[in-house]
Fold:
Amino acid sequence: MKSPRPERRTSAQDELCNCTVLRKAARRVSFLYDRALAPSGLRITQYAILAELGRSGPMTITDLARAMVMERNGLGHNLRPLEREGLIRMEVGQDRRSRVIVVTEKGHTRLAEARPLWRQGQERFAAVFGPDQARTLRSLLVAATAAEYSDPAARLGTRSVHP
Structure:
């Protein structure tokens, strides 16, 4: 005789992978911003880097990678076109091994020209998603970005065993 099926306690929504859903949303929203920024010749990833440097000033690659929550290699891939176009330049850092990224005058100009296009992307997102939901989402995503996800056992110097 077959045993009865266990009662399902989780909904289909609970079974969705948080990372997958976030990545899908990020790709969809990136497409919106890339379309808005297209007249500037910048992609949203490039705009975000220029905007971060514009706010913070020159930074080492390591500091910029940390600020952008990116791996250094991925950041380097995004920096090359900006450097080729003369929007940023690399300068030798204090210890001669590090490199500092500086926005050029041309980069500041391009950023200023792109800002109204970026605002259009912001407004379009808010119009479709709802301004209150957009604010709430930003707040939640900032919290998700700042959260500590490391393995608690790793912080204690022990290894965790995964089933």
